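Support request, priority: normal
Reporter: lab tech (M.K.)
Component: structure prediction queue

Hi team, I submitted a job for Phosphoribosyltransferase from Segatella copri yesterday, and the status page still shows it as pending. I've pasted the exact input below so you can check whether something in the sequence is tripping the parser. The sequence length should be 288 residues. Please let me know if I need to resubmit or if it's stuck on your end.
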Amino acid sequence: MVLGDFKFLGVPCHSIELDDLKVFMADDGSAKRIHFATSHAHALRKDSRGKPFAWFNVPFRNTIEPLMKKELGSSNFALFLSKTTDKPFRMVFNEKEYEDILAFMGKYKDIVFLRDCLDLSLSLSMNRIDENTRTEIGELEYQAKYHPESSEYSNVIASLTERMQGFLDSIPFFKDADYICVVPSSHAFVREIVSGLKGFDFSDISSSLSWNKTSELKNAESLEDKLDALLNSHLLIADEVDLKEKSILLVDDLYKSGLTMQYVAMMLKNAGCSRVFGLTLVKSLGNN
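Reply from support: The job had stalled in the queue. We restarted it manually and it finished. Here are the results:
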C-alpha cells in the first residue's frame, strides 16, 4: 500500500471516462447536492417508536460517507442503500451516535456535498439563499468576481482566503493532497486566494495547466456545446509536473453545471493522478 492510500483510507478512487461525463450531464432528476442548512436540515430524525433511536437519510453517498467515517472515528460506519428507494440511510440505535451525527451536521451545516465524478467534491457554501439574497460567501465571491476595482477588493480576497484556510484546517483529506490547482478557466482572484493559503504541504501547480483554445469554451450555450468545446480546448499539462499516483485538490469559484471541473479531473486522471478532490467557493442555487 502506497503512502497516499494510508492518507486517504476509506476515500474512493474513481476512474473518469468520457462516458462518465455524459452520464453526469444527463439530468435524471436525482439530487446532486446535500446541504444541511436548507434542503437536508431534517436528514436526521428521531423515531417516534424508539426502535431504532433515529434514522439518518441522505440522497447519495458521494463525499459524505468517507467524511462521516473519518469524523465519527469509526471504520465500521457505513450508509446502506434502501431496497425500496435505493437511497442511502442509517439506523441509529443509541443517543451517542445520534449526537455524533448531529454534531457532524452542525459542523458541515453550510458546506455543500456534491454528487459528481470526482473522488471528493464540496462547496464552501451555496451562492444564494434565494433568488434575491446571496449568502455571506456568495456575496464575497460576487464582489471579488465583478468588482475587482473596488477599494474593498483586498479585504474581500482576505476574507475568502480566511474562509478557505479555515475549512482546509478543520476537515480531513483535502489538506493532505499532494498538489493544489486552480481550474484554468477560473477568474484570476481564485489564484490569489490559493496563493494566500498558509501551512499546507501541497504544492500549487495552477500555472502548469492551461487551455490552448478558449474561444469556443467561453461561447458555449448548452452542456453539449460546452463538452464539445472542452474536448476541442486542448488542455495542456506541463510535462515537468509528476502526476503519477498523486492526489490533487482542484479549486474553482462557482460550481454551476460542474462540467469544466469534471473534464479537468478526467484529464488529470488520464495523466496519472490517483485522486482528484474538488473544492469551490460556492454552489449555484440551481441544478438540484
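Residues 153-170 form the longest helix (18 residues). The chain has ten helices and 15 strands. Let us know if anything else looks off. Ticket resolved.
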